[in-house]
C-alpha cells in the first residue's frame, strides 16, 4: 500500500481495531462471568442438597414420608426445587409440581447416576417447568427403602443476563462498524476516489489513450488540477488526430501500391512492408518475419550490402523461386538515413506476367507468321506461274487453280481460328457474360448432325452412346463449335472406323466426351496438346488442312464456361477428349 493510502485509511483502521478489541474483551469477560456463575450455582446446589439430606434422611428412616413431603413443599420453586424419587422412579415429593401429575423419573440422567451411588450435577432443560435447570441428585438409603434427593435451581436469569450482554455487545460492534464504514466511505468518495481518478487518467493519457474522460470534482483543491489536465488532454487529442490523419493517408498510399515495398535494417530484417510485399513473400502469419538472407534471392545480398556501405542506389532484375513458380522481379534499392542509422528501402515490381506476355506475343507472332507463310507462298507461286506461262495446258492450269483454292481455304480457316481465339479472350476478360439457359443434349445432337456428311464421306460411323438431358447456362454456338472441333479432329486424324459421343453427369459436372478408336496420342504430348499451334504430326496435319488452333479453341470455350478440357489416350487404342462443365 502506498504511503498516501496508509495515511488516509490509518484512522478508520485504528478505530475499527479498537472496536473489535473491545468486543473481544467484552465477550471474553462475558464468557468468564457465565462460567463463574455456573460454577457457583453448582457449588451452592451441592451444599444445599447436603443440608437438606441431614433433615430428610432421619424422617425417611423413621418412615415419616408425609413429613418429608411437607418439608419439600415448604421450598419455593423460584429459589430451590426439591424432589424425592423412590427406587421405582416415582416422584414421592416435589416442591414445584403436584406429585400426581409427574411421570416416571427413572430415565433421568441424574436419577440413574444417583441410584448407582454416584452423586451428579448436570444442566438440562426441564420439560415439566419449561426452563433450563441445574440438577444435583444423591442417594438417601433408609430403613424403608432407597430414595434419591434431587435439588434444582433455574438458570434463566443468568442466561437472560448473558443474552442481554451479548445483544449490547453486538449493538456496540455494529455502531462501531457503522462509524468506521461511514468514515471509510467519506475518505473513499471525497478524498481517495478523486485522487485515483486523476492518477488513472494521467497514466492512460501517458500510455496514449486520449479518449479517457477526466472527472472534475465540484469542489476542493483537486478541481484546478483536474481542469488543467482536461485542457491538456483536449490539446493532445487535436494534435494526435492531425498526426493520425496524415499517417493514415500515407499508409493508404503505401498499401495501395502495386509494387512491393520493404524497409530493411542493415542486417536484412524488415521493419516495415506494405500489403503487396506481404502477398509476395507470404507475410500474413503473426510470426512471419522477412530477412533478405532467407528471401530466396541470394544475388541481392551482395548488392544490398554494397548499397548500404556506399549509399548508392541500385536496380537489378532477379529470379524469385517459389515452389509453384519462378517469378521475375525488378528490384530497386535506396539507402535512407534515419538518425545515425542507415536503412535500405526496396521497391519490387513483378515482371513475370509482362515477360510471359512478351514471350507469348513473340511466340504467337512467330507461329502465325510461320503458318501464314506456307499458304501465302503457295498462292504467290501459283499466281506467278499462271501469269508467266501463257501457253499452259488446261490440265496444268486446273492443277494450279486447285492449289490456289486449297491454300486460300487453309488461309481463311487460319484467320477464322485466330479471330475466334481473340474473341474468346475478350469474352474471358469481360466481367459480364451473355449466357442463357441451353439444352446441352440438343447441342450435342446438332454438332453430330453438322459432322455427319464428313463422317459418311470418310466411311466412319458417328454415334451417340449416351445423351443425358442437361440444362446449363452458356453460349450454345460456342459449345457447338467446341464439340464440332473435337469431332472433326477424330474424323480427320485418328484413323478410327467409329467415333462415339456421350453426355453424362457426375459430381456436379456435365461431361461431353468424344471417343475414337484410332492411333492415339503418346503421353509426352498430353501436357501441350491444347496449346496454340501445337501439332503432334506437323506435316500430316498440314497436309490434312489443320491449323493447330482447334484444341486451343476448345480449351478456351471450356474455360469461358468455368470448366476445363482434358485428354485420355493410350497409343494404339484411341483417344477420349472431354469437355467438363459445372452444372
Automatic annotation (TrEMBL):
Organism placement in taxonomy: Bacteria, Pseudomonadati, Lentisphaerota, Oligosphaeria, Oligosphaerales
Domain Histidine kinase: from-to ranges: 367-583
PROSITE patterns assigned: HAMP, HIS_KIN, PROKAR_LIPOPROTEIN
InterPro entries: BphY/WalK/GraS-like, HAMP_dom, HATPase_C_sf, HATPase_dom, His_kinase_dom, HisK_dim/P_dom, HisK_dim/P_sf, PAS-like_dom_sf
GO molecular function, one term: ATP binding
Enzyme Commission designation: 2.7.13.3
Transmembrane segments: 7-28
Species in which this protein is naturally found: Oligosphaera ethanolica
Source taxon at top rank: Bacteria
Reactions catalysed according to its record: ATP + protein L-histidine = ADP + protein N-phospho-L-histidine
GO biological process: cellular response to phosphate starvation
Name of the protein described by the UniProt record: histidine kinase
Main location (coarse class): membrane
Domain HAMP: 189-241
Gene Ontology terms: cellular component: membrane raft; plasma membrane
Top EC class for this record: transferase
Keyword field: ATP-binding, Cell membrane, Kinase, Membrane, Nucleotide-binding, Phosphoprotein, Transferase, Transmembrane, Transmembrane helix, Two-component regulatory system
Amino acid at each position: 500500500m502506498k504511503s498516501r493510502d496508509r495515511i488516509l485509511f490509518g484512522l478508520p483502521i485504528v478505530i475499527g481495531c479498537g472496536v473489535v478489541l473491545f468486543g473481544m474483551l467484552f465477550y471474553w469477560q462475558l464468557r468468564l462471568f457465565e462460567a463463574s456463575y455456573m460454577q457457583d450455582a453448582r457449588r451452592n446446589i451441592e451444599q444445599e442438597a447436603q443440608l437438606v439430606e441431614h433433615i430428610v434422611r432421619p424422617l425417611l428412616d423413621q418412615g415419616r414420608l408425609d413429613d418429608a413431603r411437607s418439608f419439600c413443599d415448604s421450598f419455593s420453586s423460584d429459589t430451590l426445587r426439591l424432589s424425592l424419587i423412590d427406587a421405582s422412579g416415582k416422584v414421592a415429593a416435589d416442591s414445584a409440581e403436584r406429585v400426581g401429575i409427574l411421570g416416571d423419573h427413572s430415565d433421568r440422567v441424574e436419577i440413574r447416576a444417583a441410584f448407582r451411588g454416584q452423586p451428579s450435577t448436570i444442566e438440562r432443560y426441564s420439560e415439566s417447568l419449561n426452563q433450563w435447570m441445574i440438577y444435583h441428585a444423591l442417594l438417601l438409603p433408609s430403613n424403608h427403602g432407597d430414595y434419591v434427593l434431587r435439588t434444582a435451581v433455574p438458570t434463566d436469569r443468568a442466561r437472560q443476563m448473558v443474552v442481554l450482554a451479548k445483544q449490547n455487545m453486538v449493538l456496540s460492534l455494529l455502531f462501531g462498524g457503522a462509524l468506521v464504514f461511514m468514515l471509510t466511505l467519506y475518505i473513499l468518495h471525497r478524498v481517495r476516489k478523486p485522487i485515483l481518478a486523476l492518477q488513472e487518467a494521467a497514466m492512460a493519457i501517458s500510455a496514449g489513450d486520449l479518449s479517457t474522460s477526466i472527472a472534475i470534482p465540484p469542489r476542493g483543491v483537486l478541481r484546478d488540477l483536474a481542469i488543467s489536465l482536461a485542457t491538456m488532454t483536449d490539446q493532445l487529442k487535436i494534435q494526435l488526430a492531425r498526426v493520425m490523419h496524415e499517417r493514415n493517408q500515407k499508409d493508404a498510399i503505401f498499401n495501395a501500391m502495386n509494387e512491393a515495398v520493404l524497409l530493411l535494417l542493415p542486417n536484412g530484417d524488415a521493419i516495415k512492408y506494405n500489403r503487396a510485399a506481404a502477398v509476395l513473400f507470404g507475410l500474413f502469419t503473426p510470426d512471419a518475419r522477412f530477412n533478405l538472407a532467407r528471401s530466396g534471392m541470394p544475388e541481392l545480398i551482395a548488392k544490398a550490402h554494397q548499397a548500404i556501405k556506399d549509399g548508392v542506389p541500385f536496380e537489378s532484375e532477379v529470379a524469385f523461386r517459389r515452389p509453384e513458380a519462378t517469378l521475375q522481379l525488378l528490384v530497386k534499392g535506396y539507402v535512407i538515413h534515419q538518425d545515425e542509422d542507415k536503412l535500405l528501402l526496396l521497391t519490387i515490381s513483378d515482371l513475370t506476367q509482362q515477360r510471359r506476355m512478351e514471350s507469348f506475343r513473340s511466340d504467337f507472332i512467330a507461329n502465325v507468321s510461320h503458318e501464314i507463310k506456307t499458304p501465302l507462298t503457295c498462292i504467290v507461286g501459283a499466281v506467278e506461274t499462271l501469269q508467266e506461262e501463257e501457253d499452259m495446258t488446261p490440265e496444268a492450269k486446273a492443277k494450279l487453280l486447285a492449289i490456289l483454292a486449297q491454300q486460300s481455304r487453309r488461309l481463311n480457316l487460319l484467320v477464322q481460328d485466330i479471330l475466334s481465339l481473340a474473341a474468346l479472350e475478350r469474352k474471358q476478360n469481360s466481367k459480364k457474360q451473355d449466357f442463357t439457359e441451353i439444352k446441352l443434349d440438343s447441342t450435342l445432337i446438332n454438332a453430330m448432325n453438322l459432322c455427319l456428311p464428313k463422317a459418311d464421306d470418310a466411311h466412319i460411323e458417328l454415334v451417340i452412346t449416351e445423351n443425358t438431358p442437361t440444362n446449363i447456362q452458356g453460349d450454345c454456338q460456342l459449345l457447338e463449335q467446341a464439340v464440332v472441333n473435337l469431332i472433326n479432329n477424330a474424323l480427320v486424324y485418328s484413323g478410327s472406323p467409329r467415333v462415339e459421343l456421350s453426355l453424362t453427369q457426375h459430381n456436379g459436372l456435365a461431361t461431353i466426351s468424344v471417343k475414337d478408336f484410332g492411333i492415339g496420342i503418346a503421353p509426352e504430348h498430353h501436357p501441350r496438346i491444347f496449346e496454340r499451334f501445337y501439332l503432334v504430326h506437323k506435316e500430316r496435319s498440314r497436309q490434312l488442312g489443320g491449323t493447330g488452333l482447334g484444341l486451343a479453341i476448345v480449351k478456351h470455350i471450356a474455360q469461358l464456361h468455368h470448366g476445363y478440357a482434358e485428354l485420355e489416350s493410350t497409343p494404339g487404342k484411341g483417344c477420349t477428349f472431354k469437355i467438363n462443365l459445372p452444372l
